[in-house]
Amino acid sequence: MRRRDPAIGTLSRGLTAAALMALGATPGFAGPTLRDPNPPAEQRVLPYPGNLPPCADSLVFGDIAATFAHRESEYWGSTLAIVSFDRVSETGYRTHGRSYIPRRYCEGEALFNDGQRRHVVYNIGESLGMFGIGFGVTWCVEGLDRNHAFSPNCRVAGP
Fold first, then answer.
1. Which run of H or E residues covers position 72?
2. Is the distance from CB of 92 to CB of 121 less than 8 angstroms?
3. Structure pTM?
4. Which residue in 13, 106, 129, 134 is deepest, having the highest Cβ count within 10 Å?
């Protein structure tokens, strides 16, 4: 039976450690570079420049009114429709941080064809339109969130 010399094991471990350290110091084997894990949306590969329409934009109102009327007629069998908007104000812009998709948060009053005024909460998100083209609008009408998607009282649609 052959006996091993303990000094050879120590030498072998020392050489292995030195070789690994040398590889770690080589530029081709360097570890990951330290970067900001959450870069601003403007610095991504596909950047978001943050260009959003204002809260009182007619295209935003048209989108909300059209999708509201469609939802009411198709899902709830109602003829309720939005006639006009007023008292519109911005409640936040990019409130979740610079590394997220830019959003503008808004609220206002809407006049409906039944004569009622209801509070509307909505947000405008960049590149959230169809196929990622243009802006997208997520909205909620207080008192008409029948499936409670934005409960309580449309707070989830806001900042």
1. helix 58-75
2. no
3. 0.70
4. 106
